[in-house]
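hi! just following up on the protien thing from before. the input was this:
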Amino acid sequence: MITNAQKSNNKQSNVIHESWLTKIFDITSLQLTLILECISWAAVKIIIALMINSAKANKNLTQKLSKIVGEPWVVNIMPNDKVVNAFCTFGTNNIFITSGLVKKLELNEKETLAIMLHEVGHGQEKYAYLIRGIPNKLTQYTVIRFSILLLKIYGNNPMAGYAVGIVQYLLSALGIYPVSRFYEYRADAYAVEKGYGKPFISAIKKLLGYIKKEAKAQGFTPPQDPAKAKSVIVKLVLYLQELFSTHPNTYKRIARAEEKLAKMEKGQKPSTNLASSSAKLMKAANIDTSGVKLSNIISKFKKLLSK
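and the predicted 3d structure came back as:
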């Protein structure tokens, strides 16, 4: 027979046990976030090393791009005619471009250099990795904690997995994707300010044409211009498409680049000082760029999440 005193002691013990578990889960969430980040970072380094070994540096584009930028940059051609893509690797001054991008879009040399300048624009953002990483890591940390909570409540119920996916998708739309689109516009502006506005706009228009062609071939609705959309439903669909995308609507990118080029032609001085403006943004966010300590960042994240 269990007495009231024993029930009270058991209840108190359960409360202490749950509190202890909560603390353990909190620590585990942080550990998982850091472990995933370390794995991701190591994987990226390995992939970059493999890409550098497999890709072929283009001497002509490398020399011309380095001269335009004013510092050494290496343009690597990846032998893949099926994929249309270009990207830079932070901290290595390496740009990778697939052979499919040049061939499928039929880019001339100036248009190719304009795309490369867009990628250099990304690489010049000295603090972009940290600034873009903050919402990314917050999302990752929140999703891990949410996952643990659902596992405690529902166990291995498949619906819990769907719920976690939805939460991750929504958090990405609210925190990660807007920052990504912001930096895409800045990289576009960098290409324009380096004197390659017309070739860049021409290259993006060719990219838009390719996207439309591929969409029709696969039975999808081709991209539309939000500025010309008449139906409220179409405008809403286009808004949602961009909301859940890492890149801005291609029509909007063209319009902004054309607007930037028009201002430059009227004598406006370059305003996209990537390094200094990133530093100002870090300063406004009250982050010490001279010695960012991971423990301080984690502490701030925990305080933010506990509010």
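The radius of gyration is 24 Å.
The CA atoms of residues 143 and 165 lie 9 Å apart.
cheers
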